[in-house]
């Protein structure tokens, strides 16, 4: 691993909890690593496997998926659908040979500004240690891209 | 071809001090599709907004990206500016340079790079944005109120007084709820009937209110502004139009020994009966389970007695459908009936009663006409023990929450008892006294100081009978847990307030959520306390949580105000961020295979089946269709659909993949 490696982290977050939580991190001026790029979606229920796979194919070294805590979903149950899906997806990823350590599922509420900073820092540090994720990119390029 | 304008804001120093805005604007100029890129100190100011409007006209922009603060802050501001310049507001997006970049990172190249990235992502999204139009839904200006306790009555009156029609549906034969059973009410000790009965009559007489008693909601379809409710009017066996309420039928009914629900089993009623003398409407019902005719095929005495010929043995349940625009849920509570406490002997010893039974004993209209007589032998109880928290705050056997009203009504009960029997002794076992409320603590102090009610802090462990005498065993924790034993003539348990029976099924029928204890759940505990998660359905009273009368009435008026403001417009407009099932290009063509996985995933029941038929009327296929009125735009359906036939406007696959492709 080269010393200069800075991982690219893509975060898929819901509009109501984690996006608002990340806004709060800003308003509270809590600093965190700048490697993350946030994509806003209405609900974690909207986030499907394709998006994650695509993020890796496009060169993300790590992916964060985060939404409302169980029971707090703005849409009642979107996050439960998401949670069920992740349980399957994790196995699927493993089977496909994707490194599951590169995907982090988490919950950050609109009140957890500090938690968002922590999460991003943790993931950035982990992924930095794992190094660049070239395997999946190569795999994707041989496919139907 | 896209012609995108990008406007990078310094937000004074907020962005400008950390991000090199000029450089970002410069770099953005080279992004394909961008024809105009500038930076400015305050984009949200009037001159800033004018810059955007002018640029739209001057450069013929087809999309706008404002790189400034969080879209949760100023998206509406910029979207309306864009609209004023003649561009569809949904062709404007924001890149969040402040909360997600300048405020959280140090000033360096990486931060400026990130800012430029965030902008590129949004430029890519905007290129794939399409004009969207707010969804308009018509509003039926008639409300349905479920439950005719004080909550439902208050809500119905307020809505009716704001000039709108209301249907008040009550499952029992009369409105009034639990409040009609109370004797006097804390903290003023005014007679419950005296303040409630005029309200009941007003509700029945109001030209805007239709009362449907002995009726229940059978089915609910539709969405905010446009619900269709099916109500089952149970057969009373009495023609309400003909009946004058004279009560002749009741006098000769041979079944006279049926335990009376209104008096909590302390009194008796006949098979044809009116629940209580002030009932509204004052029309009897036949209790078929106990009626001699329904049991043996002979009797019909009431029919012979009735001077107007109102008795109808052949009357059947009737289903009525109503179009309503909003619903207020006010179905109230029940008290824990506690076979769960064998150690307290409830149900075993006649003189161990609960709070509602005590209300009936103390009430001037009750079975003893307000004279203190214990149930077993009618003797005046010389010593009465009141046990607070019977089942409340008891994780092991009861419910973990505080029932909120019992501290107050227990003080009231002890006081009412002392007022009637000055020489009698009243003891209260309690864990804490929770008397938060206007004049509430003063009320409890009055019971202790003026009426000499003895308060003992500690739980009761056992109540049993010895030689015809009730023995209450407990401990006084203020005296270091010293055991206490009181010989009592009567014991009153302040049993826990619980959700109404059947509230879970009702919640499912209405698609509202409920908490672990089956009380209906509000949309937000602080900012949306009367809303449910289903738009157009509101909450009032004890169906949401244990609640006293003042709070119930305030919340009912709150729910009514929400309904009135909903009805103040002829149409509702909603954000068009909703799902759509594609139809390309011929109307019968769609990727949708009709598997309806989306339907099972949708939390709002927003997905319907649509039959596609040929010219001759033969069914070609059944496709999913989104009801834009019900859809809230979560997008769960999109990730569930395996053929990607369903998509969500504003967050379409195309848009999100476009964003991803720039990473
Ligand atoms: C022993 C006792 C003493 C109390 N004393 C006081 C006091 O002194 N002061 C005070 O402020 N508060 C007192 N309270 C509290 C008071 O009773 C409540 O605050 C009040 O009754 C709540 O009104 P509600 O309309 O929400 O519920 P309820 O009174 O329970 O009314 C609900 C109504 O809805 C009907 N219903 C239920 N399900 C359905 C359905 N599916 N469809 C149609 N209708 C339905 C019920 O039949 C009922 O008529 C006391 C409570 C108890 C138990
Ligand atoms: S006798 Fe007839 S009119 Fe009188 S209360 Fe009974 S049903 Fe009504
Ligand atoms: S977006 Fe959500 S609410 Fe709308 S149809 Fe899809 S699952 Fe239902």
Automatic annotation (TrEMBL), chain A:
It comes from the Bacteria. Residues 9-131 form the F420-non-reducing hydrogenase iron-sulfur subunit D domain. Keywords: Iron, Iron-sulfur, Metal-binding, Oxidoreductase. The keyword Oxidoreductase applies. One of its GO terms (molecular function) is oxidoreductase activity. This is Hydrogenase methyl-viologen-reducing type delta subunit.
From TrEMBL, chain B:
Gene3D superfamilies: 3.30.70.20, 3.30.70.3270, FAD/NAD(P)-binding domain, NAD(P)-binding Rossmann-like Domain. GO terms for molecular function: 4 iron, 4 sulfur cluster binding; metal ion binding; oxidoreductase activity. Keywords: 4Fe-4S, FAD, Flavoprotein, Iron, Iron-sulfur, Metal-binding, Oxidoreductase. Residues 234-265, 282-316, 583-612, 622-651 form the 4Fe-4S ferredoxin-type domain. Its cofactor is FAD. Belongs to the HdrA family. This is Disulfide reductase.
């Amino acid at each position: 691993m080269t010393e200069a490696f800075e991982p690219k982290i893509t975060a898929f977050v819901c509009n109501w909890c984690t996006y608002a939580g990340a806004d709060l991190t800003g308003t509270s001026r809590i600093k965190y690593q700048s490697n993350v790029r946030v994509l806003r979606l209405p609900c974690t229920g909207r986030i499907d496997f394709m998006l994650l796979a695509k993020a890796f194919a496009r060169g993300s070294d790590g992916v964060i998926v985060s939404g409302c805590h169980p029971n707090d979903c703005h849409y009642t149950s979107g996050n439960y659908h998401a949670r069920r899906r992740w349980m399957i997806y994790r196995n699927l990823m493993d089977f496909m040979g994707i490194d599951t350590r590169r995907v982090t599922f988490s919950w950050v509420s609109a009140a957890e500004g500090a938690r968002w900073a922590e999460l991003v820092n943790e993931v950035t540090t982990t992924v930095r240690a794992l190094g660049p994720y070239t395997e999946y990119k190569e795999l994707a390029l041989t496919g139907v891209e | 071809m896209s012609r995108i304008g990008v406007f990078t804001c310094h937000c004074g120093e907020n962005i400008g001090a950390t991000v090199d805005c000029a450089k970002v604007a410069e770099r953005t100029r080279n992004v394909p599709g961008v024809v105009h890129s500038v930076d400015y100190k305050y984009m949200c100011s009037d001159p800033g907004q004018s810059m955007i409007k002018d640029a739209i006209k001057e450069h013929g922009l087809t999309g706008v990206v404002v790189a400034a603060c969080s879209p949760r802050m100023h998206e509406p501001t910029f979207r309306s500016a864009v609209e004023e310049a003649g561009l569809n507001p949904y062709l404007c997006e924001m890149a969040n340079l402040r909360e997600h970049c300048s405020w959280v990172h140090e000033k360096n190249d990486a931060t400026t790079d990130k800012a430029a990235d965030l902008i590129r992502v949004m430029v890519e999204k905007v290129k794939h944005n399409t004009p969207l139009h707010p969804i308009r839904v018509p509003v039926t200006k008639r409300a349905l109120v479920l439950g005719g306790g004080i909550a439902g009555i208050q809500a119905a009156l307020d809505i009716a007084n704001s000039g709108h029609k209301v249907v008040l549906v009550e499952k029992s034969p009369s409105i009034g709820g639990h409040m009609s059973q109370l004797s006097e009410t804390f903290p003023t000790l005014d007679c419950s009937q005296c303040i409630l009965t005029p309200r009941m009559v007003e509700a029945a007489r109001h030209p805007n209110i239709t009362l449907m008693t002995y009726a229940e909601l059978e089915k609910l379809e539709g969405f905010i502004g446009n619900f269709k409710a099916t109500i089952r009017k149970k057969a009373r066996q009495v023609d309400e139009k003909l009946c004058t309420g004279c009560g002749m039928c009741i006098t000769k009914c041979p079944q006279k020994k049926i335990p009376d629900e209104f008096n909590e089993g302390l009194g008796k009623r006949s098979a044809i009966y009116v629940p209580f003398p002030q009932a509204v409407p004052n029309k009897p019902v036949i209790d078929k389970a106990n009626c001699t005719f329904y049991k043996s095929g002979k009797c019909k005495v009431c029919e012979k007695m009735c001077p107007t010929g109102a008795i109808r043995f052949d009357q059947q349940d009737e289903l009525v459908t109503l179009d309503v625009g909003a619903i207020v849920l006010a179905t109230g509570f029940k008290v824990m009936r506690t076979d769960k406490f064998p150690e307290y002997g409830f149900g075993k010893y006649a003189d161990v009663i609960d709070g509602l039974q005590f209300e009936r004993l103390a009430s001037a209209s009750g079975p003893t006409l307000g004279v203190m007589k214990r149930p077993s032998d009618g003797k005046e109880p010389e010593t009465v023990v009141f046990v607070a928290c019977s089942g409340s705050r008891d994780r092991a056997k009861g419910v973990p929450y505080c029932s909120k009203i019992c501290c107050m009504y227990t003080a009231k009960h002890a006081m009412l008892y002392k007022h009637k029997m000055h020489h009698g002794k009243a003891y209260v076992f309690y864990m804490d006294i929770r008397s938060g409320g206007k004049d509430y603590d003063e009320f409890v102090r009055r019971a202790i100081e003026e009426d000499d009610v003895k308060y003992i802090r500690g739980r009761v462990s056992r109540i049993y009978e010895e030689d015809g005498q009730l023995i209450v065993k407990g401990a006084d924790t203020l005296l270091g847990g010293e055991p206490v034993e009181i010989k009592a003539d009567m014991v009153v348990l302040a049993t826990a307030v619980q959700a109404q029976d059947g509230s879970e099924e009702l919640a499912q029928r209405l698609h509202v959520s409920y908490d672990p204890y089956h009380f209906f759940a509000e949309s937000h505990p602080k900012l949306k306390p009367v809303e449910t998660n289903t738009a157009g359905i509101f909450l009032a009273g004890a169906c949401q949580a244990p609640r006293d009368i003042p709070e119930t009435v305030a919340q009912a008026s709150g729910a009514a105000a929400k309904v009135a403001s909903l009805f103040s417009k002829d149409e509702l407009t909603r954000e068009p961020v909703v799902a759509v099932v594609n139809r390309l290009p011929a109307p019968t063509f769609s990727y949708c295979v009709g598997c309806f996985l989306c339907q099972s995933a949708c939390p709002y029941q927003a997905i319907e089946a649509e039959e596609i038929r040929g010219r001759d009327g033969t069914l070609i296929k059944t496709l999913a269709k989104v009801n834009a009125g019900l859809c809230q735009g979560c997008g769960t359906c999109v990730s569930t659909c395996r053929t990607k036939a369903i998509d969500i406007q504003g967050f379409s696959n195309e848009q999100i993949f476009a964003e991803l492709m720039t990473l």
